[in-house]
TrEMBL record:
GO molecular function, one term: xenobiotic transmembrane transporter activity
Alphabetically ordered keywords of this record: Membrane, Transmembrane, Transmembrane helix
Pfam families: ACR_tran
SUPFAM superfamilies recorded: Multidrug efflux transporter AcrB pore domain, PN1, PN2, PC1 and PC2 subdomains, Multidrug efflux transporter AcrB TolC docking domain, DN and DC subdomains
Identification of the protein by name: Efflux RND transporter permease subunit
Keyword match Membrane: yes
Organism this protein belongs to: Klebsiella aerogenes
Coiled coil: none
Length: 165
């Protein structure tokens, strides 16, 4: 417990107590000086009380060294994640790129899953709605032309001529 508390206070911060200042309750946090927590070797400057009540340095029971690791741990929906950013090669659509990623996912273990966010997520959510949207658009244009020309047959002629004009 003492070791964890010392590490928490030295390298992060620890809530200690409250005090009243000008009628307002303010929190007190304990935190090591920034200059005393910049390098792994700075851990040797910190001491913790042992079972006999003596203060011993961390280097009496722990060692420090640099390890390479990610600058931050990515999370998506609360799970460990890897963020992949990209765009399709010239001549390919975003749908083609997402299909290629889905094919790659089939080769990976079943514990690994795929989720999209942002525009890719929106594209997947709306891809099934495109045919219905096209039909409604054509119907809207046809009914607008029918009302404009007061005829059911003229809109067909106008709609067929538009691509050539």
């Amino acid at each position: 417990s003492d070791i964890n508390d010392t590490l928490s206070a030295a390298w992060g911060s620890m809530y200690v107590n409250d005090f009243i200042d000008e009628g307002r309750v303010k929190r007190v946090y304990l935190q090591g000086e920034a200059s005393a927590r910049m390098l792994p070797t700075d851990l040797d400057k910190w001491h913790v009380r042992n079972q006999r009540g003596e203060m011993i340095p961390f280097n009496a029971f722990a060692t420090t060294q640099w390890y390479m690791g990610p600058p931050k741990l990515e999370r998506f929906n609360g799970l460990s994640a890897i963020e992949i950013l990209g765009e399709p090669a010239p001549g390919y659509s975003t749908g083609d790129a997402m299909l290629a990623i889905a094919d790659i996912m089939k080769q990976l273990p079943s514990e690994i899953s795929l989720s999209y966010s942002g525009l890719s997520y929106e594209e997947i959510q709306t891809q099934d709605q495109a045919p219905a949207l096209y039909v409604m658009t054509i119907l809207f244009v046809f009914l607008s032309l029918a009302a404009l020309y007061e005829s059911w047959s003229v809109p067909f002629s106008v709609a067929l001529v538009v691509p050539f004009g």
